[in-house]
Amino acid sequence: MKPTISAIIRENIPLLINDSAMEYKFIPLHNKPLPSLEKLSQVVDLFRSIIFPGYYGDTVTDNDTLAYYLGVNLERLFNLLRDQVQNGLCFNATEDQCIESEKLAPEIAKSLINKLPELKRVVSTDIKATYDSDPAAKSYGEVIFCYPTIRAVFNYRIAHELLKLGVPVIPRVITELAHSETGIDIHPGAKIGNYFSIDHGTGVVIGETTIIGNHVRLYQGVTLGAKRFTLGEDGNPLNVPRHPILEDNVVVYANANILGRITIGKDSIIGGNVWLTNSVPAGSRILQQKAIVSSFYDGLGI
To answer: Which uninterrupted H or E stretch holds 155?
Structure first.
C-alpha cells in the first residue's frame, strides 16, 4: 500500500526541523521578526510617490491637495519604515541588540525622512542627466515613467542612505528589488555622485566599493567589478576596496569590463567591449583593438 500524503508530511516534518544532519548549518531565523519583501516594496512605492507626486501614487491636483497628500504618505512611510528597520536591525542580532533596536528604529526612520529633500535634489540631477544624454527622451516625465535607470538608481539612493545609517540587510533587499525589475545591479555600498545616468541599463553591475564621480554615464552591460579577492587567515574574502574609481565626466560604453581597484581619470571615454584592469589618466580614450579580417578555406584557420 502506498503511503498517504498525510503520512509523508508527518515523516518529513521532523527531518526539516532538525538541521543537525545538514552538511552546512545555517542560523535559524524563523523565530525572529524578519524584513518583509512585500512591506519593503510598499516602502519604495511610498518613497516614489513622495519624491514624484502625481507620477506615482494618487493624482495630485493643486498645492493644497499636495500638502495633505505628502503628510499622509510621510506618516505611512514612517510607520512602515520604522517596523522594517527594526526587523533589519534584529537580523542576525543578539536578543539584547533586538531590544535596543526598538529605540534605534524610529530614530533611523526619522533621519531618513529628514534626508528626503536632499534625496529629491540628487535624483533630479539623475533625471536631468538621463534626459540630456538621450535624444529619444521627449520629456522629463517620460524619463521618470519609463526609464529603468531611474528606477534602479532611485532604489540605490534610498538603500545607500539606509546603509550609511547602519541598517543591515534592508539596503540589499531594496537594491535587489530594482535588480529583479530592471536587470541593473547596483550594490548599496557603492558611492555615486550627482548627474549619474545609465543608457538602456540591462546587465549593468556596480560593485560594493565602487566610487563614481559626477556626470558619469554608463551603457548596457557595463561591469564595474572586482579583479580578485583578498583572502583572510580563515580563507574567506576580506571586505576591502576592490572595485574601480570613476572620476568626473567619464563615459563607459556597452559591455565594457572595468575590474579591480583602478582609477579611470576624469573626462575619459572607455569604448565598448573593453577589458580594463589598469588605471588610465584623465582624458584617456580606451578602445578595443580592431578585428582582424581573414578568409577561411576548407576549414583552415579554425
So the answer is: helix 148-164
What's 182-197 look like in SS3?
Answer: HCCEECCCCEECCCCE
Per residue in 50-94, pLDDT (tens digit) is: 999 989 988 877 777 898 899 999 999 999 999 999 999 998 888
Nearest to 69 by CA among 161, 77, 174: 77
Asked whether the CA dihedral 164, 169, 171, 175 is positive or negative, the reply is positive
Domains of the chain: 30-183 (1.10.3130.10), 190-288 (2.160.10.10)
Give the closest residue to 193 by CA, choosing from 258, 145, 121. 121
Residue in 245, 269, 132 with CA at minimum distance from that of residue 193: 245
- First-to-last C-alpha distance (Å) of the chain: 61
| Angstrom distance (rounded) from CA 122 to CA 274 | 30
Closest CA to 83 of 170, 172, 160: 170
CA distances for 224 relative to 19, 59, 77, 259, angstroms: 38, 39, 33, 6
Q: Lay out the sheet containing 257-259: strands in order across.
A: 185-186, 205-206, 223-225, 257-259, 275-276
**Maximum CA pair distance of the chain?**
78
